Amino acid sequence: MIRKKTEVRKEEIKAAVLDIIANEGFSMLSTRNLAKRIGLSEGAIFRHFKSKRDIILSIMEDVKSDLQDKLRNIALSAKPAKNRLREFLFAHINYLYKHQGITILLFSEAAHMNDVKLKLQLNEILMEQKLLITKIIHDGKKEGIWNKKINEENAALLYLGIPLSFNVETVLNRNKFNVKEFCENMYKLLLNVLK
Amino acid sequence: MIRKKTEVRKEEIKAAVLDIIANEGFSMLSTRNLAKRIGLSEGAIFRHFKSKRDIILSIMEDVKSDLQDKLRNIALSAKPAKNRLREFLFAHINYLYKHQGITILLFSEAAHMNDVKLKLQLNEILMEQKLLITKIIHDGKKEGIWNKKINEENAALLYLGIPLSFNVETVLNRNKFNVKEFCENMYKLLLNVLK
DNA sequence: TCTTTGCAAGTGAGCAGTCACTTATTAAAA
DNA sequence: TTTTAATAAGTGACTGCTCACTTGCAAAGA
Fold first, then answer.
1. Distance, in angstroms, between B21 CA and closest chain A CA?
2. Long-range contacts of range A126-133, CB-CB < 8 Å, 24 or more positions apart?
3. Do residue A16 and residue A62 come from a single domain?
4. Is B27 in Cβ contact with A154 (below 8 Å)?
5. B24 and B56 co-located in one domain
6. Is the Cβ of B39 closer than 8 Å to some Cβ of chain A?
7. Over the stretch B21-43, which tens digit does the pLDDT of each residue have?
8. Range of B27's domain?
9. Which of A79, A167, B44, B64 could form a disulfide with A103, with the two C-beta atoms 3.0–4.6 Å apart?
């Protein structure tokens, strides 16, 4: 019986959740299977999280502090809008690629939709992403590099489709996919939209 | 005890599935709740479909014969590429708007992912949409109205993000949303990408 | 009549979460 | 530096519940 600190176990549990979702599918995400995957008893899971829902909420918090912080820093930096847009897209897609399962988890929870708090959390994440992209586009217009007639909010919605499209593609065609090339091409297309 | 032909009940059941998903969330899609919603006993459901999975597969078949037929007709018509792109986008989004719940159903099933056949069906649908869009773009290039340097497949992926983005938006912000305006704006942005 | 459609009351499996109890680790007292 | 007590981490059987699906029987309608 190996014993570990609760901080360590919490990380293991959250990692296992994403692993199960990405590799076995959402329907295999039972506390039983989760415990088995870590090599722990089912009861022990509930030592570290008071409910399954709490695990999901904790993962959402991670997204908010990891991904969103990164994206916020990029969007609000002093660099030219063009560079920020590029960095933003690459950071965004790379995060989703490294943490496969996150998008599925987030949207499955939103689709299941009985949990108001979870829905709010997701909305908060997406609204901020939309806002940050809108800001970059707005700044680019002020710099004079992009078309002033562009509807900023709709352009941001178009942007948000990219990570979604990416995730669908990776879920359905597991990994036969060059991430860097994908980002590079999408960046080029986005520049076309804006100029 | 009202009795109806199995064909009629099948339609009622499938409509109820989409209704539950769109208005109560995926987690409420139990055979119990489904029966209750139609005003039927649970057992009667299984008179008309041999399993819950079969209901989902039947809905997918509907998508394939309704939406895909429509999109195929548009994409393969003799009209100018520009018009086809516009019609395609509008038909696509309108279908998803009228049949709310379809996208959630399709992607939730893909995320749950233990069912190879369901995954294949979804992949087939998306692959055809991608192909049709690719064709429209290709034709537009030949007509000389669009930039020949555009990567057709990636532009198609960017397009596919639009219905996804649309669905996320409608799930999270129930209907405070002008569909026509959304389509119009997205169409404009797509033209920017291509020219 | 006899096939089709319906209902009520099942079934077993799987679910999240709990509980009484055990064991490892830490730290204070002897 | 041991001994001892407190606590953190783990176990696995069990609970109540929901799930998809089945069964046996009733009644409608061709």
1. 8
2. A126/A160, A126/B168, A126/B172, A128/A68, A128/A71, A128/A72, A129/A68, A129/A71, A129/A92, A129/A160, A130/A156, A130/A157, A130/A160, A131/A156, A132/A71, A132/A72, A132/A75, A132/A76, A132/A88, A133/A75, A133/A85, A133/A88, A133/A159, A133/A160
3. no
4. no
5. no
6. no
7. 988 888 899 999 999 999 999 99
8. 1-49
9. A167
